[in-house]
Hexosyltransferase
Amino acid sequence: MRRRAADYRRRVRRRLSIWIWLFLVLFAVAGCVLIYLQHNFHDQDHNQDQGQDRLEQHVLDRNARSIQVTRNKLNLTKEIGSANSYARQLLEQMTLAKAYVVIAKEHNNLHLAWQLSSKIRNTQSLLSKAADPITQEEAEPLIISLSSLILKSQDAHYDLATTMMTMKSHIQALEARANAAMVQSAYFGNLAAESLPKNLHCVNVKLLADWITNRRIKELADENNNSPRLSDNNLYHFCLFSDNLVAVSAVINSTVSNADHPKQLVFHIVTNGANYAAMQAWFVANDFKGSMIEIQKVEDFTWLNASYSPVVKSFKKLGFFDLENDLNQKYESLLNHLRFYIPEIYPHLEKVVFLDDDVIVQKDLTPLFSLDLHGNVNGAVETCLEAHHRLYKYLNFSNPVLSSRIDPQGCGWAFGLNVFDLVAWRNANVTGLYHYWEEQNADGKLWKSGTLPAGLLSFYGLTEPLDRRWHVLGLGFDVNIDSRLIETAAVVHFNGNMKPWLKIGIGRYKPLWQRYANTAHPYILACATS
């Protein structure tokens, strides 16, 4: 057969080689593999820091499932899961986990301690970031893993007895540290409350200069100290024991400003030698509406010595008399205890009203002198409207000396405004009772410190309750006192560390004190701006 010409031949379709097809398929597969590997490598690189945690989580989850099957009785997740709040469950488990961290470290099981710490951090992070209530989906992984670790800790060797003993020792150590911190805080708080601002020290210096250079001031002071009005029981007698000049001045100024007959008022002040001259100069040079003011210093009470007073004896034992420079500290402390020696200090008086230097008087106090105390020695406002002012809160009734004679549920009362019947006081020998209780507390086991516990014991069964409106307390620490209660109070008391003459004083109450503080006096103005 003859061949056709080339132009008339049928075109032949060329087929791709099978090898080419195989190459294309392999290339596509390789591309997919590369994409997958790249994606997987990216994820591994992104989670590099969490890889160990994921492995641990996987193992813990697997262990938790097996533990839930084999140890249902110790399944903490199921026990705690009955609570409504997942946050509370996490907090409870986190607290227990923290305890096991301490125990694990003590047993040198650092890996378990690291695992627990890691889950504690995750729990803390979840709790801190949660704006809404934590859901089951968020909490369940952590609850399961924490439960597993807690059970793992129990399986290791941290049984209940070991846990209790270890935690008990840690709790005791923490309690000791907390008690020490509380004592230190109370000490520094009292130190701050008793300290005087620099400008008030400046006022004392100026007044001391007046006392030294102005002979007339000394003459007037001698006349006041020898006045027959000081022992006239027909007048109204008030006593204050303090080394704070401006505070005492505010108390007296507020008392005479609200009295119906201020000229019938007599104020008896006892201070220490360091402030005696300044107080004399201040009260002689300023008029307090014709009232009589007597200034004494505690150093002149030679009868108040270690052979007579247990508290002076205790000061001597503590070394207050070792150095001359310690005398001021001794007398500042002793001023707080002079309230138990009022009949000895004022032997001719029959009735007095005792005032603290951190009170402000808002009403006429002379009606207090006509109150019937029903044979009692002390008239005071009781503070037992709340349970924490019962006697057992102030005193240690584990001591049989107290428990056999005093009712622990007895009502407490407050110093600051007290009406003392000195005739009844002498008949009941209250000062002797005070000495007895101070001697019983020589080791500090009946009460820690302060004069109120000694007063509660010395005047036990000898106190007449006064109307609450006579004496409102708390202006030195409580910012939420009812304004109506303050307005109707005869006396407001800035008891607490936030005194009104300090910067830390509560601003809401400061105007009550500043109104009577005579801040416009030239010396106070000069010292405030210097």
